[in-house]
Structure formats: C-alpha cells, structure tokens
Amino acid sequence: xxxxxxxxxxxxxxxxxxxxxxxxxxRAEEAKTAAGELDGPLWVVKAQIHAGGRGKGSFKEADAxxxxxxxxxxxxxEAAEEAKKMLGRTLVTHQTGPAGKQVNRxxxxxxxxxxxxxxxxxLVDRATSRVSxxxxxxxxMDIEEVADKTPEKILSFSVDPATGYQPYHGRRIAFSLxxxxxxxxxxxxxxxxxxxxxxxxxxxxxEINPLIVTDKxxxxxxxxxxxxxxxAIYRHDDIAALRDETEExxxxxxxxxxxxxxxxxxxxxxxxxxxxxxxxATMDIIKLKGAEPANFLDVGGGATKEKVTEAFKIITxxxxxxxxxxxxxxxxxxxxxIAEGVIAAVKEVGLQVPLVVRLEGTNVDQGKEIINxxxxxVIAADNLSDAAEKIVKAVKG
Length: 397
Ligand code: GDP
Ligand code: MN
What we know:
- By secondary structure, this protein is an alpha+beta fold.
- It folds into 3 domains: 90 residues, ATP-grasp fold, A domain (Dna Ligase, domain 1, 2-Layer Sandwich), CATH 3.30.1490; 127 residues, D-amino Acid Aminotransferase, Chain A, domain 1, CATH 3.30.470; 147 residues, 3-Layer(aba) Sandwich (Rossmann fold).
- It is 35% helix and 26% strand.
- It has 13 helices and 19 strands.
- The strands form 5 sheets. Strands 8, 9, 10, 11, 12 and 13 form a 6-stranded antiparallel β-sheet that branches. The chain has a 4-stranded antiparallel β-sheet with strand order 1-7-2-4.
- Strand 11 and strand 12 form a beta hairpin.
- The model has no long low-confidence stretch (mean pLDDT 93).
- The structure holds guanosine-5'-diphosphate (GDP) and manganese (II) ion.
- Manganese (II) ion binds next to loops.
- Its cofactor is Mg(2+).
- GO terms for molecular function: ATP binding; magnesium ion binding; malate-CoA ligase activity; succinate-CoA ligase (ADP-forming) activity; succinate-CoA ligase (GDP-forming) activity.
- Pfam families: ATP-grasp_2, Ligase_CoA.
- Heterotetramer of two alpha and two beta subunits.
C-alpha cells in the first residue's frame, strides 16, 4: 500500500526527521489560507498522486509552456493560484503511464534553498532477505537512469537484522555522499530514524529523492515516497487510515474487498483461475498461444459462489477484455461451485465476449452438467493447452 507525500512527511515529522512545514489542500478555496500559514518567501506547490516524476511531468489539460506537478511560488497569492490550477486536472509522469492520474490533493510547502540534491532509499532486498540502504550523490534525478549509466555512483548495502542499524552504517552513507562536519552527525541520526520508522511500520520501500543539503548546510527530506507491506497493514491502523482509494485501480479495489487476488494487466483475455501457480501457468500459455492476459486472478481455495460471481463481474467490467478463460483445477475448490458462480454472474451482467471453460478435479462432472444445462454459449475445453488455444482462436479469429 502506498501513501501520499504529505502523509509520508507527517510520519517523518512525528519521528523527528527534518522536513519542511506544509499544508495539504483538498479544495481550491482552502489554498490561500493554507499558503498564508507558511512563512515564505518561497512556497512549493506539489500535486499529490501515488507516482513519482511529478516535477518533470505535464498536465493533460496544460497550456503551452506550463510547468509540471511541482511549482515554485513567490507569494501566498501565487501559491494559491498554482494550487487551484492543478486541482482536478490529470498529471502524466513517466510513472503514471499515458492515462495519467487525476490530482485531487495538493501539498503546499515552505520552500527550501537547495545546496545539493542527494538520493536515499530503504527497501526490502529480496536477494539478501534484509533491509538495504541505497544512496547516491545523484539526487533529484531518475535513479534508474543513474543505475544504468553510472552505477558506480550508487552505494548499496544491507543491514544485519540481528544487530539492526549501527552508527557506522550512517557514517558510511555520510562519507559516500560527501557530507562534512555536523552533516555527518545529522546523517547518522537521520538514518537511525528512517531505519526505525521502516521497521516499526512494516514498510516495503522508503525513498527520499531528493534528500538535500540546504543553503544553511543542514540535511532535509525534500520528497518522500513510502510503500507498506499489504500483509502487515492489519497491525497498523494509523497507516491503514491513510489509504486513498481514489489512487487505486477500481477493479483491484473491488477485488480486495472480496479477498480475491487480482492484478489488472494490459491484455485482452480475462482469466479466472484457482491457485497462484495455475494462474501463472495460464497467463504463460495464453502468451504462448499468441495473446495477452488482461489480468491475474486467483479466486483462492475456498471461494464461494458469491466470490466467483464477483470475480466474473470484475473481469467483464474491463473493457479491454475480448474473451474469458475460466481454468479451474478443483481440489479444495469444487467445480460445481465455480460453475454456479459463473452462471450466476453471467445472468447478472450478461456475456458479450466468448467464454472458454476448462474444469478438472473435484465434482467435475456436476460442474460440466451445470454449465451444459445452463443454456449459456460456453466453449468447453479438456486441458490447459486446448483451453488456451480455443480462447485465443475465439478472440483473434
Ligand atoms: P518528484 O518530481 O515527483 O520526484 O517531486 P520532488 O518532490 O522530488 O520535486 C521535484 C524537484 O523540485 C526537486 O528535485 C527539486 O529540484 C524541486 N523542489 C522541490 N521542492 C523544492 C524546494 O523547496 N525548493 C526548491 N528550490 N526546489 C524544490
Ligand atoms: Mn522526488
């Protein structure tokens, strides 16, 4: 689960990390009051979306020469004006994809004078199964590009969970970032704080880009991106409360409410499968037969008829779906339950695209009978390869 920059900065502030003063703004008429509560003489007006690259992004509705999603202002009036311009419009960055994201919240921040922009991140490193620090002197830029062109400018190391964070970790980062004197002390303390926050809140990712040295020579977190482990959210009511459902794919959101493992993809064939392994295999074989899956969907082992109905509705609500493949290997999941769910869903939402059903396993005969007696226009398949071939042929002709 991701949160907005202003929420991440509030968390950082509560742990004592250095961030600027700022005010979130949800409605245009709040902008002037919010900006007026900050000291100036520089204000930064920042679009709040769950994607990076806002500064270099552009609005779909932009006038020629208009700036991106991070704007500097020299007065309260100017700050309020920029906030109003951005609210409600669609910001496209290299992380949003071409569709962009609607800006529903703005963060107005006290502007900082920047001496240097640095990069810092903490993440769960799957290779070492540990938390890793990543830092670079090349802050403010796309870190993927730095990694690609000048990998020697990135320092990365993991922390032994038995000892946890130690001051020498912080010194190592400070020296690699070229920090001096008081800044080294500030860095050691800040890294300690960030590591503690990361562990205590079960984060997956924490990125400060840029971490800056101000004109006064102090460290400050100028941007903040946080991602939390969805499986641990139940332990953190404070984090769960920060969820912004408007930032999530509406189909994925509906799926999460029914406890379905669903991920939207770009292809044309909707898949309903039980078991993550079978779902992966189904996606692979669809690709092998020359088409692309529209989603990953694992309805799980103990799915009810209601859950299957909901899953089917989510698949058919995707306008890119040109055909549906139901591929069930009934173990704990019974084929007759799946069949009933599919039929209930089709009765409710109709069926505008070809449907291939492959059932195998527990109660397979009952399942097939239910489908055959339903009067639905279903293409039956006997095995995985046959099923994939049939749906691809039905869609591509
Ligand atoms: P991102 O583009 O989504 O990563 O948004 P950031 O918060 O990182 O802002 C983008 C860039 O705007 C930063 O790299 C800075 O160069 C600039 N910026 C952001 N805040 C300030 C500020 O307080 N003062 C100044 N001078 N520039 C800022
Ligand atoms: Mn940034």
